[in-house]
Design goal:
about 250 residues; alpha/beta; Spore Coat Polysaccharide Biosynthesis Protein SpsA, Chain A; 2 domains; nine-stranded mixed beta sheet; two-stranded antiparallel sheet; globular
């Protein structure tokens, strides 16, 4: 199977082995773009015969594109360090006939919160395009919440199987990630010239909670569903608060 897997890492020793182990049957080319790990991440990746590129941090899209450029094959499966693939997806990948470079493949995500599979709410209905041909598709170079850039007329095909996304191991990690992404997204908004307003700062968080906890049935995931919906609301508030603060500092 002529598929390369590209993963960006930093201090992922606690989880990267599970991801690499799940890929052994589907590829002989795993490219790791590491931005300064101080734990055993690099050693573990080399143990699994992955190619490791040690570099600085230039942003999610930029670092992913570094790995894509270094890959052996044109067909790229793009994963994060905490994303393994299940047996059904392994079989789907092995059976693929990759002949149309304008075809991209969308894969369902099973997202886990502290090892609990989240079936509803914001995390329960995730599909993402993660398999594509690098001659036609690349990541954009934004710092956070990067997106794939597609050619006109692209064909999207859904694959059977799942990417198993082990998002966070504990509440503290979740809170740290939430704050980090809120700050990064605020910086992206500032660069795009966006301005904060009272509605987004105070009402958008409430709407986010109601949408994910009530309308998208997050309450069916129990305590974890409540924590996720509340944290999504907190993230929404923080990114607009940081946007307001950053704009205020620029004006000063």
């Amino acid at each position: 199977m002529n598929i390369s897997v590209v993963i960006i890492t930093k201090n992922e020793a606690h989880i990267i082995a599970r991801t690499l182990q799940s890929l052994q049957t589907v590829t002989n080319d795993m490219v790791i773009v590491d931005s300064g790990s101080t734990d055993d991440t690099i050693a573990i990746c080399k143990k699994y015969n992955a190619t490791v590129i040690e570099t600085d941090w230039s942003g999610y899209g930029f670092n992913k594109n570094k790995g894509i450029a270094a890959a052996k094959y044109d067909w790229i499966l793009s994963l994060d360090a905490d994303e393994a693939i299940d047996a059904e997806l392994q079989q789907s990948l092995l059976q693929l006939v990759l002949s149309n470079t304008d075809e991209v493949f969308e894969i369902r995500f099973k997202n886990f919160f502290c090892d609990q599979w989240i079936r509803y709410g914001e995390w329960g209905f995730d599909w993402h395009i993660r398999l594509f041909n690098r001659k036609k598709v690349q990541w954009n170079n934004v710092a956070v919440h990067e997106n794939l850039l597609f050619p006109a007329g692209v064909t999207v095909t859904k694959l059977k199987g799942n990417i198993l996304h082990y998002t966070v191991q504990n509440r503290q990690e979740y809170d740290v990630k939430t704050d980090y992404y809120a700050r990064m997204n605020a910086k992206k908004y500032v660069a795009a010239g966006k301005k904060p307003n009272i509605f987004k700062l105070y009402f958008s968080p409430v709407f986010a909670f109601i949408q994910h906890y009530i309308f998208r049935l997050g309450f069916l995931d129990g305590a974890a569903g409540f924590i996720i919906a509340r944290t999504t609301a907190r993230y929404t508030f923080l990114k607009y608060k940081y946007l307001k603060d950053m704009n205020k500092n620029r004006s000063a």
